[in-house]
Specification:
By secondary structure, the protein is mostly helical. The chain has eight helices and no strands. The longest helix is centred in the middle third of the chain and has 30 residues. It is globular and about 55 Å long.
């Protein structure tokens, strides 16, 4: 477990600018929601008031999250045969656990907290809506984050990943 946390800390340090971008964008969007939300109204009303700003912020969070996921996976070079972890072996389960913990801490948890802030700002009780909140976070994870994670594990660089994402988007 000590090695897992060491890898997570290393990844956090290497990807600190992407993490900061994700957190800053989510915080900015959460602030805008709180500022423009109408208590008791659906969160969609705040989206309508924000207009293009909300769309750009959502796109920014999605792109930064995808970049973070790809950088996280490409840092260990799983698709290559001459990486340092082959010379100094780390168990695959340890590496996988470290990457999943990093994803949880730096992408999935901020997404969950952002959605919690939106619900709270709209006047909804989290205790009544936590199941829906978890399911929305799970859907976002399975639709966006895990496919990028999987594609990044079988590609060697950004060009291959971009080509794979374009191919996947056209299907």
């Amino acid at each position: 477990m000590k090695l897992v946390w060491h890898i997570v800390k290393k990844d956090a340090w290497q990807q600190r600018y992407l993490i900061a971008g994700i957190l800053l964008t989510a915080t900015m969007l959460g602030y805008l929601y709180v500022k423009f939300s109408i208590p008791g109204a659906a969160p969609i009303e705040a989206i309508r008031q924000l207009g293009a700003t909300a769309g750009l912020a959502f796109l920014g969070i999605a792109v930064l999250s995808a970049l973070f996921v790809a950088s996280l996976v490409h840092a260990e070079g799983l698709a290559s045969a001459n990486e340092h972890w082959l010379a100094r072996p780390i168990a695959g389960s340890t590496l996988f656990a470290a990457k999943l913990i990093a994803l949880l801490l730096f992408v999935i948890l901020p997404l969950f907290l952002f959605q919690s802030a939106v619900l709270t700002a709209a006047g909804f009780a989290l205790s009544d809506h936590w199941r829906g909140l978890l399911s929305r976070t799970a859907v976002a994870t399975f639709i966006w984050i895990l496919p990028v994670f999987g594609l990044a594990t079988i590609t060697r660089n950004w060009q291959q990943l971009a080509a794979g994402l374009v191919c996947a988007a056209t299907l």
